């Protein structure tokens, strides 16, 4: 159940030889139509990779017919030669699939500052294009992994139409899309304008609220391709809701697989005067190393939550804040609440609820405690 679940899509994933480990490292996803509407969102990092530059141009007309993706090399900070390599990847894919090159997006992930082995890449593209199938989504999801321990896929099936997605990302998870490559497909009959609006809304409350280590990548890319093959045209709200659910699912999988994390933490901020305030407060808590150390030590240290909130310029009264860990309100009205020994943080999932009592707006930030205890000799560093 992945990017080839919706009608009108094929995919493949192969070991082209880009990675020294010999693991799968190149994928292709093709939209076979009848329509080719698309939208994309990219890293806000001013230092961004050649594939990001190429794909921004490719999707600017609201149309894509294919995506070629590689792991094992980010093709970032490689100058004009790197951009030429990204263009060659698009042209090669387009040539094998008989498409215009500017209808092919390119995504890369891996080490920054290293040129891709283009002879190997181009041979791999030929093989991957020849091997496209309507059940190749799982192989594609595996081929884009770097330090990921598991492939990440999700599907939402609706009345006569569906959405499928795959993602990679296990480090440099921070807003500006988290560090990731994401390809989302749908057989809904929607326009490029609908794709763009829905993708922006969905990413705003999902990927943009996933924050593991506060580091923003150079290669972040989220692409949405719509084939229209179901011949069903859902309402904009219905499509956006389903897309948002799928993006939340994938964002949660990214956080769950972050390198070395022993806890997955959902920081829910309620009672904010503005949504921006709720997000600001949640993000400040998520980026507090002291807070994360407390969670790793199974300590519901609500003082570290309040101290993080206090450095923001959100509207709140310090004497009104409530904080709960896994349902136990350890801070009430900015003071001592329930006995903190009642809180159990030994499980992997942690829910921190902060009530500012300033308004009605909410936001949830996903993060983790990042202990970095993964086996380094098995890691292939992500972009």
What is the fold's blueprint, element by element?
Blueprint: E1 9-14, E2 26-31, E3 37-42, H1 50-59, E4 66-71, H2 79-97, E5 104-109, H3 118-130, H4 137-143, E6 152-157, E7 162-168, E8 181-186, H5 192-204, E9 221-226, H6 236-256, E10 264-272, H7 275-286, H8 289-296, H9 302-310, E11 322-325, E12 328-332, E13 335-336, E14 349-355, E15 361-368
Parallel strand pairs: 4-5, 8-9, 10-14
Antiparallel strand pairs: 1-2, 2-4, 3-9, 6-7, 7-8, 10-15, 11-12, 11-14, 12-13
Task: Describe the 3D structure.
This protein is an alpha+beta fold and 383 residues long. The chain folds into two domains: 248 residues, L-amino peptidase D-ALA esterase/amidase, CATH 3.60.70.12; 117 residues, ArgJ beta chain, C-terminal domain (Ubiquitin-like (UB roll), Roll), CATH 3.10.20. 29% of the residues lie in helices and 23% in strands. The strands form three sheets. A six-stranded mixed sheet has the order 13-12-11-14-10-15. The protein is globular and about 65 Å long.
Under CATH at level 1, the class of the largest domain stands as Alpha Beta
- Strand tally: 15
Q: Please give the radius of gyration in angstroms.
A: 21 Å
Give the CATH superfamily of the largest domain. Answer: L-amino peptidase D-ALA esterase/amidase
Q: In terms of structural class, how would the helical and strand content be classed?
A: alpha+beta
Our count of domains comes out at 2
Per the principal axes of the C-alpha atoms, what is the gross shape?
globular
- Kindly report how far apart the N and C termini lie: 27 Å
Q: Could you name the CATH topology of the largest domain?
A: L-amino peptidase D-ALA esterase/amidase
Strand line-up in the sheet with most strands: 13-12-11-14-10-15
- CATH architecture descriptor name of the largest domain: 4-Layer Sandwich
Total number of helices: 9
Pick out the low-confidence regions: 172-178, 372-383
Roughly what is the average pLDDT, rounded to an integer? 92
Query: Can you write the helix and strand succession as a string?
Result: EEEHEHEHHEEEHEHEHHHEEEEE
For the report, how would you describe the main beta sheet? 6 strands, mixed
Helix content: 25-40%
Strand content: 15-25%
